[in-house]
Specification:
- The complex is a heterodimer of chains A (about 240) and B (about 775).
- Chain A has a single domain, classed as Class I glutamine amidotransferase (GATase) domain (Rossmann fold), CATH 3.40.50.
- Chain A is built from 5 helices and 11 strands, in the order βαββαβαββββαβββα.
- In chain A, the strands form 2 sheets. A 9-stranded mixed β-sheet of chain A has the order 2-1-3-4-11-10-9-6-7, with helices on both faces. A two-stranded antiparallel sheet of chain A has the order 5-8.
- Chain A is globular and about 45 Å long.
- Chain B is an alpha+beta fold.
- Chain B has a domain of about 190 residues: Alpha-Beta Complex (Phosphoribosyl-aminoimidazole Synthetase, Chain A, domain 2).
- In chain B, the strands form 6 sheets. Chain B has a 7-stranded mixed β-sheet with strand order 8-10-7-11-9-12-13, with helices on both faces. Chain B has a 7-stranded mixed β-sheet with strand order 23-27-22-28-26-29-30, with helices on both faces. A 6-stranded mixed β-sheet of chain B has the order 1-2-3-6-4-5.
- In chain B, about 65% of the residues are buried.
- Classes of the chains: A alpha/beta (about 240), B alpha+beta (about 775).
- At the A-B interface, helix 1, strand 6 and strand 7 of A face helix 8, helix 11 and strand 24 of B.
Amino acid sequence: MNFAVLQFPGSNCDQDCVHVLKNVLGQSAKLVWHKDTSLGEVDAVLVPGGFSYGDYLRTGSIARFSPVMQAVQQFAANGGHVLGICNGFQILCEAGLLPGALVRNRSLQFRCEQVYLKTVTKNSPFTNQVADGKLMRVPIAHGEGCYFADEETLAKMNANGQVLWQYCDVNGNLTDDANPNGSLQNIAGVCNEAKNVAGLMPHPERASEAILGGDDGKAIFESLIHALQNKGAAKAA
Amino acid sequence: MSDPAITPELVKKHNLTPEEFARAVDILGREPNYTELGIFSVMWSEHCSYKNTRPVLKGFPTKSPKILVGAGEENAGVIDIGDGLAIAFKIESHNHPSAVEPFQGAATGVGGIIRDIFTMGARPVCALNSLRFGELKSAEVRHLFSGVVEGIAHYGNCFGIPTVGGEVYFDDCYAGNPLVNAFCLGVLRHEQIARGAAKGIGNPVFYVGPATGRDGLAGAAFASQDLTDESSEQQRGAVQVGDPFMEKLVMEAVLELLATDAVTGIQDMGAAGLTCSTCETAARAGTGIEIELDKVPQRAPGMSSYEIMLSESQERMLVIVKKGREAEVQRIFDKWDLPWSEVGAVTDTGRMVVRHHGVVVADIPASKLTDDAPLYHRESKEPAYLQVVRAFTIDQIPTLSNPTENLKSLLSWPSIASKNWVYRQYDHMVRDGSVVCPGSDAAVVRIKGDSLPMLPADSTKNNDAVPEKFIAMSVDCNATYVYLDPYEGGKIAVAEAARNLACSGATPLGSTDNLNFGNPHNPELFYQLKESVRGVAEGCTVFNAPVTGGNVSLYNQNPQGAVDPTPTVAMVGLIEKAEHITTQWFKDEGDAIILLGDLVDAGDQLQGLGGSAYLKVVHGMKTGTPPKCDLQKEKQVHEAILALIYSGDVKSAHDCSEGGLAVAVAESCISGYPARNTPRLIGASLDLSAFDKARLDAILFGEAQGRIVLSVAQVNAVKVVERAKLLGVSATIIGSVGGTDLTIKAGGQDLKWALSEMHDGWWNSIARAMK
């Protein structure tokens, strides 16, 4: 599959995403500069983590206006698959491609640590390859990852199966202690109603190799690749 | 506005002695004007010239076949790591700025050291820091501590560099004088080493980065004076303001630029800003340089030439470009939306000439500024307090009354306690290379293809696979030891760093040191400096870890006194194979626990308790001659643990340092941390009853050097012990891993600690103190 990894000034995890896609998963991946107005021929878009535009004003709020994001809007509107990680998740929320918003961690401090994630539904292009009942151990690294949405939106998202991942303890319980940032309902990641756009605060690209302490996060990329292959097959048939 | 007249008072205000001023007059053949006075002042500050320490620094070993760029040559040293790859690394202090404005002071310290690394043409891949504060009971100290940590986190996280390790100590001597030493390491190919030399007569000189403002005026000079009670008010303007986002753009642009081969020289504007970068690049190349200040981007209107030349505004670079290649350079700066300006040219005059509004405002022979700086052989005298320290005997230590409580107190003492409150605020995993994260003896980082700076687009090497390599690093200094015995303490700082590397499976490549001391005019303080540097130098020689550069920070004192002498040593090593990477926590129930080295040093009348954490925490004493460090013996221990690791038998290895054997074993039981709020606790039972000749406090908490606690599968235990003995190192099976408690049989007592209780104090004490 061909992946576009967006590169904003201040993107920090762009190379990490390319590394995992290419060297771990054997996919083709290219960096797309924020000033580009076209994504080229790609099967999916990754919006990586970092501090796009320095995160001045508000995280992700400037990046949404970049030329490349106009192309991503179009790509997503046409059913293209987009995954935002950390700052990428914040950008997708700011851009209105995902519901809700990410605000300052309740601790008011940046947090970098491993957390456990429960996959809420396998019925999405981003979760279909996660083993049944498997808790994923994936690191977080953010200062503004507290997920917020109004009650009505949350109810709708739950009804539609749009909450994809939640922070949990080692036994899968959604406790306050397991919630690293104060997110509502321990939400770590969500998708849009059409399920072609998703975002999460944890970094699956940092949890895709045993040498870095575990490869649970790989299942998210594998799910996406699987979904893209099916889509390709459906198109061919 | 006209410049002030040059009076003796003004000279004094610039920290220049009458002799130094006379020297400047001699060099110029006339009196310096105001701008020139400022230039001499910053260039001849200790920070830039090492005028008080150069004779002492000569003792450092600086050579090895692996060194590609040595100490003092450039912004940072560069060492060969094989296969055409190299690493650049350095440590630098930002103590004074952090004392008056902790957040920005620490943040810009990180920014400065990162710039030193990419100026060498290397891609910065990880950072460490070494921090020292007063005791956390003080609100002012807590303010400094949280500000410094947030500042480091802000800069490093936003820039996108993982902060993978470090050390933090708390002692009253640092109450008004926090120490903030930041380390950065970068990776490059041999042929990518960039030089800070203004080569090629007629080549244009570019300025790139944000506009020059009045922030950080003469910071280098500020860093070279004692702090006073008024410092925080008066000197806040000398602290720079950092913008990590800008630095990230500058770094990417610079690396892209260096790949074009259009650059002949490059230097960051760090201490002494535009002044230092212009005269140093010219001096290195034996050329001259002429710049026009009207072309320098300026943040404030009406800045004087003095202010522009001495500003330490951050994230600025000076780039010397091959004539005719200007357009390429401009294209790259524009791509990254960076402010830039062509400000001057390289000349053949050997002079640094500065014009402002068409008038020459400075005209100084460049090499005289850098090479003819004053040099002082300071007087040194053994401090009187050392007599008292040496007279201290073991009988003056009350007998151990409550070992169970004492171990818990040690584990929750902030200097020993887990630093998770600190490192959880640092992104320590970005760049996908952090193999061993903070919380083990040494950090280990993987080097892979994207760790390297880019190559020219047409390079044939673009498709070559980059062999994976692992770099281990640790930064260490027990300053209490250095205070109590500067020479032994210096050796121990190096020995501990090397031991931490060995425990993680690494062989030393080189080191960088940060010498933090008090006022060098005080002979007793200078003695501390001289003697501890002698110890550090000897250690670096024995462990084959030559010094590739570093930083000297003097005047770390306020009216309450000087800091403990703190020669921080950061050592970097190479791990050949992934399977050799070793961590400190116990792995499996039933494994045997082995002690490498002697339980107690028979030659030490204080049995390892002099200067120990136990004495300080339990008895409130900071005295006694610290443990001796036999470097040859220590080296044998490191070679032995490496040989054992290579044989594949070692499951965990942890060095014994502050708190002795009991703390080391306890940490191996409680420091595994797979995920948030999910520590991996694993018990241990030790039987130390065979060691009945030493005191129980010494057995448990003595800090004899050259000791490592390791665990191996029970079936391999005897083999490992025999092997260690063959390697000339004493080794003893002292217990086994398992259960939910730590139990120790020693001195006729059966001691027991619940793991959860030990863990709670160790893990949470800093967070609780900060609430």
